[in-house]
Design brief:
It is a single chain. This protein is α+β, with helices and mostly antiparallel strands. The chain contains eight helices and eleven strands.
Length: 306
C-alpha cells in the first residue's frame, strides 16, 4: 500500500509513488472504469470527497462508484452532504443510498441529502436547540413527489410511482459541540448505517444494530418515499477517542462487525482525520464480491483530531 500523504515532497526531490488501489484479501477484477452512459449522468462523478474543520469538530466524507456500476456504465447511486450552522458550530449531515431498482436512484439519493441538510440548517437557524429529525422523512417525500409529478406529468403520483423513480435510504444527523464532548442525534430510513469507532481499542459500535441484508424494498427495510411508522433514532455523546461514522451498506457490509481486515484498515486510517482525497482512496479498496457504491462520512472531536 502506498504511504499515506504527509509532508509534501520537495519539487527537486524524487517523484512520489502513485496511489495503487488497496487490495484486501482477494482483490476484485481490475479494469478501467467506463463513463456513465446517459444524458442525466454528467454531474454524478465517479468519486466525490470533501473535508473541513470548525473550532470543535473535523468532518470528512467520500463517496466512490462501485465496480458493478463502473463496469456497466452506470452512475454512482450514493450521495453525501454536510454543512455547518455558523452561529452554533453545529454540523448537520446526510448520507443516502439510491435503491438500485429505482430508475433515477442516483437523483433520489442526492435530493434526499440536499433536502435533509437544508431542513436541518433551517431548523437550527430558527432555534439552536432544534432536533425535529422525525420530520425529515416527510420533507424528503414531498420533494421526491414534486419531482415525480414533473417527470410523469401526473398531478398525484402514488408512493409506488415515486419509489419506482427515486427510492433511497437516508441517514441524517446533527452533532453539536458541548463541554463534555460533542452530542450527536441521528435518524435513519432504510438500511444505511452509523457507527462509533473507538480509536483507543479499534472497536466499532453499530448505532442502529445490524443492518438487514435483505432487499431494501422489503417490508422490513423501507426506503423513502415511504414513511416509517417509527423513525429509528439514536443519541450519544462522543468521547475524545471516538469518531462518528455514517455510511451506506457498500461500506457497512464489508466492515461487518469490524473485526476483520476492513475494520483494521479503517481503524488505522481514521486514527486522525486524513486528507479528503486519501479517504476516497482508502474507501475505494478492492475486495472480491464487494462491488457496490461506497460512501463514508466521519466526524472527529477537534481536541483529539489535533
Amino acid at each position: 500500500m502506498a504511504p499515506r500523504p504527509g509532508t509534501p515532497h520537495a519539487a527537486t526531490g524524487p517523484a512520489p509513488r502513485p496511489w495503487r488501489r488497496i487490495a484486501v484479501d482477494e482483490a476484485g477484477p481490475a479494469f478501467e472504469a467506463r463513463p456513465p452512459a446517459g444524458p442525466d449522468f454528467f454531474d454524478f462523478p465517479d468519486t466525490e470527497c470533501d473535508g473541513w474543520s470548525t473550532a470543535d469538530l473535523t468532518m470528512r466524507y467520500a463517496s466512490v462508484r462501485g465496480a458493478r456500476h463502473r463496469y456497466h456504465s452506470q452512475p454512482r447511486q450514493d450521495s453525501a452532504r454536510a454543512a455547518v450552522d455558523a452561529a452554533s458550530g453545529t454540523i448537520v449531515f446526510a448520507v443516502a443510498d439510491g435503491v438500485s431498482r429505482a430508475t433515477l436512484a442516483h437523483r433520489g439519493a442526492l435530493v434526499a441529502c440536499e433536502v435533509a441538510v437544508n431542513r436541518m440548517l433551517d431548523g437550527l437557524y430558527r432555534d439552536p436547540g432544534w432536533a425535529d429529525l422525525a420530520g425529515l422523512a416527510a420533507q424528503c417525500t414531498a420533494r421526491l413527489g414534486k419531482l415525480t409529478r414533473w417527470w410523469l406529468r401526473r398531478p398525484q403520483p402514488s408512493l409506488g410511482e415515486i419509489a419506482d423513480l427515486y427510492a433511497t435510504t437516508l441517514v441524517a444527523g446533527i452533532i453539536r459541540p458541548a463541554a463534555g464532548g460533542p452530542v450527536a442525534e441521528l435518524c435513519r430510513i432504510g438500511d444505511s448505517g452509523a457507527w462509533v469507532l473507538d480509536r483507543a481499542n479499534g472497536r466499532y459500535y453499530d448505532l442502529f444494530g445490524a443492518a438487514d441484508q435483505a432487499d431494501v424494498v422489503s417490508t422490513s427495510v423501507t426506503p423513502l418515499p415511504y414513511q416509517p411508522e417509527h423513525m429509528e433514532r439514536v443519541g450519544l455523546q462522543l468521547r475524545p477517542s471516538q469518531v462518528l461514522l455514517a455510511g451506506t451498506d457498500g461500506f457497512g457490509l464489508p466492515l461487518g462487525d469490524g473485526d476483520g481486515r476492513i475494520g483494521e484498515l479503517f481503524a488505522r486510517e481514521l486514527g486522525s482525520p486524513p486528507p479528503p482525497a486519501w479517504l476516497a482512496h482508502v474507501l475505494d479498496f478492492s475486495r472480491a464480491t464487494f462491488d457496490d457504491d461506497r460512501t463514508l462520512l466521519a466526524i472527529w472531536p477537534r481536541n483529539s483530531a489535533r
